[in-house]
Amino acid sequence: MLRRIRLPDLLGLILLSCSIVACDGASTAGSDGPDAGARCASCGYLDPWTAGPYPVGVRSDLWIDETRAALTWTGCGRSSCPRPVPVSIWYPADDSARELPPSSFDAFFSVSEAALQQVVDDLIEELGGDQVDVTIPDFPVQGRRDAPLRAGRWPVVIFSHGAGGVRFQSVFLTEYLAAHGYIVVAPDHEGDATITEINGEIVTVDTRKFIESALKR
Q: Domains, the chain, ranges and CATH?
């Protein structure tokens, strides 16, 4: 049976596995070698909540894939629209970013709570379910908006949200990676993200396609 695992859990397993491998490197040594306790006395374990050495910058952009057609977006003013790819990018920022004002989670939204509430109401009417009151959370985040990129070359990670997710759903993870020296690019999958905003237009998940896909699994 195929088991699904959440990305944060997978990251934890990878880190744990690395720690075990690092600590057990001498496990095949002869009987004269140090015992497990001695070998691991100096082993360090990476705390996933430890702050990274770099300040974090974040910016959002809209990329257009001209090679593929949009699934649900119709706001391009043409009979057939290209595929929009809204992205958020987290990255190691220059030290000057520490002087910039901190951001908050609600900065990822450019639409009002009233507009989001209408979208949720429409989805509930279509799919059924209880009324949900929409509130955009405003808790603080590490990322400084449009902070200058730190000089240097950095590995790039692509974060892909799951079906019905959004690109900034795991900001705790994307910020953590950026603070430790990674550039993280997270796109919204148009037609598959629960909700995304494209040039002022709210685009929601294609519920029919979403349900049909789930039934085929």
A: 1-48 (no CATH), 51-216 (3.40.50.1820)
